[in-house]
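Hello,

Our lab assistant flagged a job as stuck in the queue for most of the afternoon. It eventually completed. Since we weren't sure the result was trustworthy after the delay, we are filing this so someone can double-check. Below is the sequence as submitted and the structure that was eventually returned. Let us know if re-running is recommended.
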Amino acid sequence: MRVVVVLSMFALCVGAEAQQVSPAEPLSVTGPGLNPTAGPARNFTGAVTVTSPFRGSGGSRLGGATVTFQPGARSNWHTHPLGQLLVVTQGRGWVQAEGQPVREIAPGDVVWTAPGIKHWHGATPESAMTHVATAETMEGASVQWLEPVTDAQYRRSQ
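-- returned structure --
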């Protein structure tokens, strides 16, 4: 399955080089698996790979990347000033907003997290999970990284 999305967020939050649409180019296609980068330990627990980062052009604030979490890997708690959209493409994962129950996510699921909501997402202990993550920037930032999801918090998801 090939997912083509033209979007700026994860490139900014993980420091990956993003594909940017040229002002003279009205349409851009970013191929799968471009520019693989390890998700930084300051933002993730476990093995995470960020690929195909992208960002819009012409004043667009939208960007993102494809993110793969190996079994047990997860993001830190974090927020997005203008919200975040995830589209799950492979595997099984979990997502949780602070104070809410953990929700399982699977291929085809679309997850919207409203602006400013503290949350995390990642793979289940038994399955890797891949999603396309997108968000807009506000004042140059698309994410505020917070503390790690502890092993105890993660285990409560089971």
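-- support follow-up --
The delay was a queue issue, not a problem with the job. The result is valid. The two ends are 29 Å apart (CA to CA). The chain has two helices and 14 strands.
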